[in-house]
Amino acid sequence: MTKIPVLTLDGPSGVGKGTICLLVAKKLGWHILDSGSLYRLLALSAGDEPDLDNVSQLADLARDMQIEYVTSGDALGIYLRGKNVSQAIRTEATGVLASKVAAIPEVRQALLDKQKAFARAPGLVADGRDMGTTVFPDAELKIFLTASAEERAKRRYKQLKDKGIDANLSQLTAELHERDERDSTRSASPLLAADDAIVIDTTNLSIEQVYVRVMQLVEQHFS
Ligand code: DC
Q: Domain map of the chain by residue range?
């Protein structure tokens, strides 16, 4: 069986992985895995106040979610049980709950095969926290993007505002710190650069500069 080329892009919340992932995948004509959206979809499916101790119920829910990703032009539509939830999953409240359900090992295990199935020809750009360490440990190219928490909060603020979603910068910064802490310290697949990942600090870089750097690495590794 021919090996599918995989580029993993990991990093903390608000670092710009999603934007870079879309640009790179479009340029290469590859598929995209937005793994955070799976945890967000689970958070949405689980309702407002899920019982986080009922891990088997959450794992079953994760395994049985009926989801569909539909690309039309530059936009990616995300559907849950036939309903378009592309906007609904992007709220901060859903992100916070996603980070909580993502800390449960049984949930991560339940979503593993779903994530691996995204690797299809001609190639995959996978965005998340543990793409290079756990989901695609054999990826040819692993990139880990970082930026200061303050810079990431500003970026997330702008992103939400641009989408017409209400946001508050100081609350976002506080939530980001909290989410970083939970995502980095959990025992199951914490946010971590793989040993063989190339780390890019994007604090003082524009999206364009990050994109150029990533494409240089892609050319070195995949040609
Ligand atoms: O990238 P995002 O903000 O959409 O991710 C939402 C949450 O999901 C994030 O706080 C942590 C979790 N997540 C994860 O644990 N592992 C991934 N591969 C992707 C996201």
A: 6-218
**Do the strands 198-201 and 75-80 form a parallel or antiparallel pair, or are they unpaired?**
unpaired
* Cα 39 to ligand 1 centre (Å): 6
Show the ligand 1 pocket: residues with CB < 6 angstroms: 13, 35-36, 39-40, 95, 98-99, 102, 128-130, 179, 183
Determine which helix (DSSP H) or strand (DSSP E) holds 142, and give its type and residue range: strand 141-146
6-218, what's its fold? Rossmann fold (3.40.50)
Tens-digit pLDDT profile for residues 10-68: 999 889 999 999 999 999 999 999 999 999 999 999 988 889 999 999 999 999 999 99
Distance 36 CA to ligand 1 centre (A): 4
Tokens of 88: 């609904």
What's the pLDDT band for 74 if we cut at 50, 70, 90? confident
H helix or E strand, kind and range, residue 78: strand 75-80
Structure tokens at 23: 């640009």
* C-alpha pair distances (Å), 131 with each of 55, 74, 115, 164, 197: 23, 23, 9, 30, 11
Q: What tokens does 113 get?
A: 């095969």
Q: What is this structure's pTM?
A: 0.91
